Amino acid sequence: MPGVQWSGRNIWGEANMEQAARAYAAVIHDGASAAEAIARA
Fold first, then answer.
1. What is the CA radius of gyration of the chain?
2. End-to-end alpha-carbon separation of the chain, Å?
3. Predicted pLDDT at 10
4. Are 40 and 32 within 8 A, CB to CB?
5. pLDDT tens, residue by residue, 1-41
6. How would you class 23 by CB atoms within 10 Å of its CB: exposed for 0-12, middle for 13-18, buried for 19 or more?
7. Number of other CB atoms surrounding residue 1 within 10 Å
8. pTM of the model
9. Per-residue pLDDT, 11
10. Alpha helices of 1-41 — where are they, by DSSP H?
11. What are phi and psi of 25, to 5 degrees?
12. Alpha carbon distance 26, 34 (integer Å)
């Protein structure tokens, strides 16, 4: 986006962003519930 500067900070407060990304993907792509996604990640 023009004029927007990205800070690159972790806005979700997650310590393990790789695990969080896997969980988000499971919810979005696999239709998993949040609890299922966290358990699988």
1. 13
2. 31
3. 72
4. yes
5. 566 666 667 777 888 889 999 999 999 999 999 999 989 88
6. buried
7. 5
8. 0.65
9. 72
10. 17-30, 34-40
11. -65, -40
12. 9
Token digits of residue 15? 């310590």
* Residue type at position 38: I
What is the sign, positive or negative, of the torsion defined by CA atoms of 40, 32, 18, 39? Answer: negative
- Domain positions in the chain are 13-41
Residues 6+ apart with CB under 8 A from 40: 22, 23, 26, 32
Tokens at residue 6, please?
Answer: 């990205």
> Tokens representing 9?
């900070």
